[in-house]
Amino acid sequence: MKPSSLQLSSFRITSAGGALLIALLAAYPAHAQSSDTPASASPAFVAAVTQQADEAPKAAQVRPSAIPPTIPQNMSTPDDTGVLATFQPAGDTSTSGNAFFTSLGTNGRTCFSCHQPQAGWAMNPSTANALFSSTDGSDPLFAPVDGADCPDRGAAAQTLDQKRAASSQLLTKGNIRIFLPVPAGAEYQIRIVSDPYGCETSSLYGLPAGVVSMYRRVLAATNLTMNAQFTPDFSGVPPQGAIMWDAREPTLQSQFIDATLGHAQASSTPADDQVTQGVNFELGLFTAQKTGQGVGAFDENGATAGPVSLPSVGTPFTPNFGVPNAFNTFDGWAASTNEAQASVNRGQTIFNTRQFSIVGVAGFNDVLGGGPVTGTCATCHNNLDMGSDVIPGGRHLGIGDNSRVDQSGNQTTATVLPPTSDQPLFSFLCPVGSIHFFSNPVVVDGTTYDELQTTDPGMALISGKCNDLGQFKVPRLRGLVARAPFFHGGNAAGLADVVEFYNVRFNIGLIAQDEQDLISFLQAL
Known about the structure:
This protein is of the alpha+beta class. It is built from 15 helices and 16 strands.
């Protein structure tokens, strides 16, 4: 189905931005869902995940926390900087009998277990700790299968201290365990450098069984219609963009099914009407920051932020790829005499217009010929008033990499967000030259490889390709504050760390006031 003229008129691109968009789209045809593929079709990795989930132990005692009887049309929850709000255009949702709030597996979990409104419909450490305290660690969130750092640690924990230690990733970073098989025919060889939880060397849960465990932030189950995805012919692709950090799911329907089989340890696939109901609930959620301390409401005095405006933006495709204005919600505060509001406006301007050289990003620069590209924050966070990336696929920024060994000279990540001791560290031995913008030749058993050490292989664990190592989707920015810590593994504790990472990574040259203004803007989303 071709878009209407109205839809095309909202597809605003500069000529330079259009060239970037076309080039990037051409590089990611595999991420588009074919019209011949059922929405519920599960990818190849699911069989191994389902098998391990089915065999993983379950908690001896399960004590689920309460589920509210209704999710109101307008729902507000406090966070660290003000109030977060969720808006449902269709009105209130009764949770009774709704698949999103129903245990469809065998361990007591529902979608709500990991996706809660006060955490931006994701999970954060404060929510995880509150659930732990109120249930003595018996909430289904902490199911050993992936709520523990490794299933055997979760199953063996008896005392509160043992349970707390067994779920350290959830309680300190809001991370869930993701376990995926090494794809057949992968270009790389994997070696374990560090295994803090004993999961990677486990004969049941680790590489001896062909499975790798990573620890990732729970993605938000809201604003999903705002992450538009494009195909070159604009044919009926749902506006969802890359699904999951590693883009491993083709549709939200398949994601709902596979999460039920894996995270909830279901013994059978959920019914079609349950899948539809769960996905429709997610698609009907719009979440954003509503107020900020010292700033006031974000939808007053000329500002147009807050969640109520979101359903009218981005339907179905409204990127402004090619900069400048990925966000215009705070244009009305340009002349504000309130310094906090003026800071938000200045941060928006920096985000939209401050130019810098984007260098050495696999999944971006290599697609565009390999050289530096002049861009802004909005180049990758380009979906209008949402800040996601309309391009499927991922970008390799070096987060969690042992970048100090990189001899290519293409990246500047040696001193920012390196591997931490609470995460496993893997060595990937790849054919020389197969990882773009990276060089670290080592000789193993007489053969020379490029060795990349990282805490999470990202999309490479789905594709088996060395150049996909460390590539992750660009997440949506709305409701950001409630989802701390940030990046795929909770690598950045706060927004100051996020801004400083990009400042160093791309040598942007932000001064202290610039950084504070950017933080103020991101806190207002």
